[in-house]
Write a structure and sequence with these properties.
Layout: H1 12-18, E1 28-35, E2 41-43, E3 51-54, H2 55-68, E4 72-77, H3 96-108, E5 113-118, H4 140-157, E6 161-164, H5 171-181, E7 188-195, H6 202-208, H7 227-240, E8 244-248, H8 254-263, E9 268-272, H9 274-285, H10 291-305, E10 309-312, H11 315-320
Parallel strand pairs: 1-3, 1-4, 1-10, 4-5, 5-6, 6-7, 7-8, 8-9, 9-10
Antiparallel strand pairs: 2-3
Helix pairs in contact: 2-3, 3-4, 4-5, 7-8, 8-10
The protein binds ligand PBG and zinc ion (ZN).
Ligand PBG binds near residues 201, 204, 205 and 217.
Amino acid sequence: MRVRPRRLRRTAVLRDLAAEVRLSAAELIQPHFVLPGEGARQSIDAMPGIERQSVDLLVEQVKADLDLGIRAVLLFGVPSGEKHPDGRGAFEGTPLVARAVSALREAFDDRVCVVTDVCLCAYTQSGHCGVVDARGEVVNDATLPLLARMALAHARAGAHVVAPSDMMDGRVGAIRDLLDAEGYSETAILSYAAKFASAYYGPFREAAGSAPGKGDRKGYQADPRDGRGAVRDALLDEEEGADMLMVKPALAYLDVIAHLRAQTDLPLACYNVSGEYSMVKAAARDGLVDEASLVVENLVAMRRAGADLLITYHAREALRAGWIS
Ligand code: PBG
Ligand code: ZN
C-alpha cells in the first residue's frame, strides 16, 4: 500500500496541519436577548446558560465576552408592555434595541461589531413577522416600510450591521434604500437569506416571546423540502444589496450552506439556532454525549459546509471552557 490516509492522522500536530477548517473566536457571533429596565436578568428555561438581560447588564456581559475574544453580538429585543398590530414598538421613538446599540457603541465603539435582528414578530400583536390582514395573511409589501424603519432606528443608534429575519420579499432592497436615503450607506446588511420554517426555533420563541398566536410561518419562511428555492431566494437578497448572507438553521441545512457557498462570493453566515443548542444541552445534561466534543464537531461541520461566520449560543462557553482557543 503506497497511499495510506492514516499517515496524516497519526499525531495531534499532523491532524492540525492537515485540517481543512479551523475554529476561532474571530468567526463567532454571540446572540443576546435584551430586556427593558435596569438590573433585570431572567434565565430561559428552554435554553440553559442563556439569559435575557437589561441594557446595563448586557454591557457588562459583552465586556466579559470581549475578554474571551467574542467581538460580534446579535441583539434581539424582548419588549414588555403592549404590542400593536403593526409592531410599532420596534421602530417608534427610541426602541429598546436602539438603546442597547447606543450603550454598546458608547462602551466599546468599533471594538465590538453590533448586529441587530430586524423583524416585527416580538412586537406585533399577532406574533407574526409582518402585518396581518383581515384573513390572517401576512402582508408582504405593507410590511416592508416598517422593517425599513426598524433598521433605520438601529442604524441611527450606531448598529454596524442590520440583519432582517422576516423573510418578506424585497426587504433587503427596501432597507438598503431607506438607509441610503437617510445617510446610512455605511451600515451593512446581513440577510437571513435562506431561513427555513423550522421546529428548531421553538426555544427561541419562548426566549423572545415571539411565537405566532395563530398559524405558523410557512407562508413566508422557506420550505424545508425546497432547498433550491431557498438558494434562489438568498441570491435575490444579494442582488438587492445584501452584504452578507445567512443560512438558518445550520445543522439540518448543511447542504444549503454548501450550495449557497458555491453560488456567492459574499461572506456567508449560518445560525446554529436555539433548538440545536437546547438539544445538545439536554443530551449533555442526561450524560448521553460529551458536550465539548459535540459542540466542536457541530461547529466544524458548519465551517466545512462553507459558513464563514457562526452565530451560536455556544460561543461564550466554548471559549471560556477552552473548547475553542
Ligand atoms: C424572528 C427570529 C427567529 C429566530 C431569529 N429571528 C424565530 C422565528 O423566525 O420564529 C430564531 C433564532 C433561534 O431559534 O435561535 N424572526
Ligand atoms: Zn420574525
